[in-house]
Structures are given as structure tokens and as C-alpha cells.
Write a structure and sequence with these properties.
Strands 1, 2, 3, 4, 5, 6, 14, 17 and 18 form a nine-stranded mixed β-sheet that branches. The protein has a five-stranded parallel β-sheet with strand order 8-12-9-10-11. Strands 7-13 form a two-stranded antiparallel ribbon. The radius of gyration is 23 Å and the shape is globular. The chain is built from 18 helices and 18 strands. About 30% of the residues lie in helices and about 20% in strands. Helix 12 crosses helix 14. The longest helix has 20 residues. It binds flavin-adenine dinucleotide.
């Protein structure tokens, strides 16, 4: 069978366009086209988000908004009245533990799966790991997978489709620290590199256990965190809140950041009321009027930063020390001490895309347009070839997919990083992907969130 669309990866991003379709009452029509959803894990919807031990960096409305406007008997009807949703509702006006968010997203995924199961032309394939794609001469895409029938019994299977949506999530690489031109000048020894843990790991329970083990056995409690965004502050938050019997003293935790730390506010007025003036008009989202909507710290991370700066009502947080990486190479040498004197280094500098090879009809691997973080996509979510032209019918969404600022998406013009977030997957970029497949002449407009807290 040739599917219309294969969605590879059924986490928050892969399921985003399906949720968008459900909210537009177009899910049944979409599934009638023939959609296969593949994931190496067993459940749709959850992805990795529920594995993190920190609270969400968005307000809970981000996650609950998908339930709004559901008719009785609608796709997500069962989720509305579930116990997990009721628990999440308690956090509606604030942020929530990501473990609970993960359970909720899993329930949303289960509800989607129930609908998919009713469609003879569409199917969810769990425990199915995708290894490569090949664009055949007639444009059909062949996807090679291994299906785990049991832990020990696997079969190789090919899927054929007209479109593929890659939603594989992202990963972090230690090599990025070794290869970072800034740090190369520091001549970091192997001993230093042995101290490094990736932030994605330390934000999971196994990583907390590892930090606990390393720090309780070490006379020095000095920790160096490299990065200045949410992951870096979330790692600092976990050190202070998740370890037992490890007492940090003043200045023990250093956050080494490249550029100035930015804070997100719901409006210019809210920022000014808080005494925060370090932004210009260019840093305000023209759609939502939020300050640093994309690049600013939110929720617990923002509060922690305010405590470090002594701006909060709470006691000043002196255990954390903020150091900006010097631009001057002579001064750069001074930060070597932080690397040498520390017991633990946490590398929190973003995610690379989880790429799989894409071959042409002759079996040659296609050269994609990549930057140092992985492959790139255009504003329509299409993967770009090395010459900058889009690869027809192969789209990407989600962590590591490299979605950049555009006027259509909104946010602050000055933002140079990658845009991510559950709301974006289920709304703006989710709609772009959906239109690209379902209704190719894109009808995408500037989508204004209903609730100001619903966006990143
Ligand atoms: C620490 C942290 C906190 C975050 N907090 C928030 C937040 O509070 N609010 C918010 O809106 N966003 C948040 N985000 C951003 C984003 O929403 C999440 O990262 C989200 O999990 C990304 O979803 P995803 O589907 O792209 O990736 P993932 O959640 O990683 O899902 C990818 C899916 O693809 C599957 N997969 C991977 N490789 C293969 C393969 N080869 N074959 C088949 N299946 C495969 C995986 O099993 C998984 O189900 C956070 C991100 C991080 C890193």
C-alpha cells in the first residue's frame, strides 16, 4: 500500500499536525487519505517531555489549549474528563511538572490512536524504528524500518508514501564542546572532558542520580554549567532542588554564558513594572506583544535568574555565579580555571537534529543543507537540499528540526536560535505542515494565540 503520508516520530511534534486537524474537524478526512504514524516507542503523544524532572517552562494553558472547543463526542472527549487532566488543571495558571505533562500528552496520544484505529486506511506502528528514506524515480518515498515484534524478534519492513514528516526529536553531542571554536583555544584536557554531562541527561532521573553520586563523593562541590538558556537554568534548578545532602556554598555553581541572559514578559508594561528594561522594540513580538517571546527565560528559570540578580522578593541566590564568556581571546584564558577547578561540567547548548540518511532513486545519499546543528528546513517545514532548494514532500517538525524566526510565526526579530514548543507544533508549524499535505497552496496566516500564555 502507498500511504499519502508517513509521520515518523509520534512525540509532541509528530502528533501536532494531527491535533491541529482534529481541532479543525478535519482529522477524519486527513486519515481517509491514508496516514501511517511510526514510532520506536509504544505510545503516541508523549515523546521525551515527560522524562524530564523539572517543571514546564511554559504555562499549563499551552498543553490544555488542545482540549478547547471540543464538541461532545469529539476526538479528545475522554481526555477532557480524565483524572490526569483534572490534575493538570490545578496548574492552569502556572507551570506544571513535566512528568504530569508527559502523562497528559500520552492520554492525548491514546485518544488520537483510538481514532486512527477506526480508519482502515491509516495505522499507528509502535516499536518501529526508521533508518533511512529513499526518493524513488516516480517521487514515491520508500522508508526503511525495523519493527520490534518482541525485544528479540525483529523484521525489516519498507513503507511507501507520497509525503514524509520527520519528527524524530533532537539530541545533544559532547563533540560540540570539543569542536566549539571558543573552547578549542582553551586546550581542554581529557580529564576535564571526563567531567562533562549533557543537560538532557541531567534533567532526567538517571542524570540526577549521577550528579548526586559524583558530587557526594567529591570534596569540591563546584559545578560549571555552559549555556545561558532554559536548559542551563533548569540544570542549576535541579542541582539546588533535586539533590539530597549536597550543600552548595556561595559561588559554587557557575553558569558560563555566551550572550546576555534575556527574560520573557507578557508585555512591555509587565517587564517595566518588574524593573526590566534591557530590551528594544525589535525584541517585542509584533503578534503577541510579548518581550523576548522566543529567547527569554520563563517560569522557574526566570525566577531563578531574578533571585541570582537579587531582583526577587526571595533571598538573593548567591550559590550561583553568572559569567559571560569573554570575547577577547586573552581574557578567555581566564575562564580555564572554571573548567579545571570544577567537579562537574554540564553542557547545555541546545540540540542537534536526529537525522537519518535520505537517498535518491540511484541509491546515492542526498546532500542536505546543514549548519553545525543539522539539516535545515524552509518556512513551509520542507527539508532543504545543499543548493537551498526544498526537497519535495519531505517535511520536518520538532526539537532539532531547526525552525527559525519568520514573520509568519512571530516572536522577536532578534532571535537567532531554534523555535520549539508544544503550542507551536499544534498550531503555527503544525498548521503549516498540515496545509502542505492536505491543502498544498498554503493558507497559513499570522496565527494569533487565543491566550497570551499559550505561546513560548
Ligand atoms: C528540557 C526541556 C524542557 C522543555 N520544556 C518545554 C515546555 O515546558 N513546554 C513546551 O512547550 N516545550 C518544551 N520543550 C520543547 C519541546 O516541546 C520538547 O522538547 C518536545 O518533547 C519535543 O517534541 P518532539 O516530538 O520534537 O521530540 P521528542 O519528544 O523527543 O519525540 C520524538 C519521538 O520520535 C521518536 N523517534 C526518534 N527517533 C526515531 C526513529 N529513528 N524511528 C522511529 N521513531 C523515532 C521517539 O521515540 C519519540 O517518540 C522542552 C524541551 C526540553 C529539552
Amino acid at each position: 500500500m502507498i500511504y499519502n503520508t508517513l509521520i515518523v516520530g509520534a512525540g509532541p511534534a509528530g502528533t501536532g499536525p494531527l491535533i491541529l486537524a482534529a481541532r479543525k474537524n478535519k482529522l477524519a478526512e486527513f486519515l481517509d487519505l491514508g496516514v501511517a504514524i511510526l514510532d520506536k516507542h509504544t505510545q503516541m503523544g508523549r515523546g521525551c517531555l515527560g522524562d524530564y524532572i523539572v517543571n514546564s517552562d511554559t504555562y499549563t494553558t499551552v498543553f490544555l489549549e488542545c482540549l478547547e472547543g471540543q464538541e461532545k463526542g469529539g476526538v479528545l472527549d475522554k481526555v477532557i474528563s480524565s483524572k490526569i487532566t483534572q490534575s493538570l488543571e490545578k496548574y492552569r495558571d502556572t507551570n506544571a511538572p513535566l512528568s504530569l505533562v508527559g502523562e497528559f500528552l500520552g492520554e492525548v496520544g491514546d485518544a488520537l490512536q483510538t481514532i486512527i484505529d477506526r480508519h482502515p486506511t491509516s495505522q499507528f506502528f509502535p516499536r518501529t524504528e526508521v533508518h533511512s528514506l529513499q526518493v524513488l524515480a516516480d517521487g514515491t518515498i520508500s522508508t526503511s524500518t525495523i519493527r520490534y515484534l518482541t525485544d528479540n524478534l525483529t523484521i525489516k519492513q519498507k513503507f511507501y508514501s507520497q509525503n514524509v514528516v520527520l519528527a524524530l526529536g533532537g539530541k545533544q553531542h559532547l563533540q560540540n564542546l570539543n569542536g566549539d571554536p571558543k573552547f578549542q583555544k582553551l586546550n581542554l584536557s581529557n580529564q576535564v572532558l571526563e567531567k562533562v554531562l549533557l543537560s538532557d541527561f541531567v534533567l532526567r532521573q538517571a542524570g540526577v542520580n549521577e550528579m548526586q553520586k559524583r558530587l557526594e563523593n567529591s570534596s569540591s562541590k563546584k559545578v560549571l554549567i555552559i549555556g545561558g538558556s532554559h536548559s542551563a537554568f533548569a540544570a542549576a534548578w535541579s542541582l539546588l532542588n533535586k539533590l539530597t545532602g549536597v550543600n552548595f556554598s556561595e559561588g559554587d555553581i557557575t553558569i558560563l554564558h555566551r550572550s546576555k541572559i534575556k527574560l520573557c514578559y507578557r508585555s512591555r508594561e509587565e517587564a517595566l513594572e518588574d524593573g526590566y528594561t534591557d530590551f528594544t522594540e525589535e525584541d517585542i513580538c509584533p503578534i503577541t506583544q510579548k518581550v523576548y517571546r522566543l529567547g527569554g527565560l520563563r517560569t522557574d528559570s526566570r525566577e531563578l535568574f531574578r533571585q541570582v540578580m537579587g531582583w526577587s522578593q526571595e533571598q538573593q541566590e548567591k550559590r550561583i555565579n553568572l559569567v559571560e564568556i569573554p570575547q577577547d581571546s586573552k581574557e578567555l584564558k581566564n575562564i580555564e580555571t572554571y573548567f579545571n577547578q570544577t567537579s562537574l561540567i554540564i553542557y547545555a547548548c541546545g540540540y542537534d537534529s536526529n537525522v537519518i540518511p535520505i537517498f535518491d532513486s540511484e541509491g546515492n545519499e542526498m546532500e542536505l543543507l546543514c549548519d553545525h546543528r543539522g539539516s535545515r528546513i524552509d518556512d513551509n517545514g520542507r527539508i532543504l537540499l545543499k543548493d537551498g532548494s526544498p526537497l519535495p514532500n519531505i517535511l520536518a517538525i520538532g526539537l532539532g528540526a531547526g525552525l527559525k524566526y519568520s514573520d509568519k510565526l512571530g516572536g522577536e526579530k532578534t532571535f537567532k536560535g531554534e523555535i520549539n514548543g508544544v503550542w507551536i507544533y499544534q498550531n503555527t508549524i503544525g498548521e503549516t505542515i498540515f496545509n502542505q499535505i492536505f491543502d498544498p497552496p498554503t493558507s497559513f496566516g499570522k496565527l494569533k494565540p487565543k491566550n497570551i500564555d499559550s505561546t513560548r
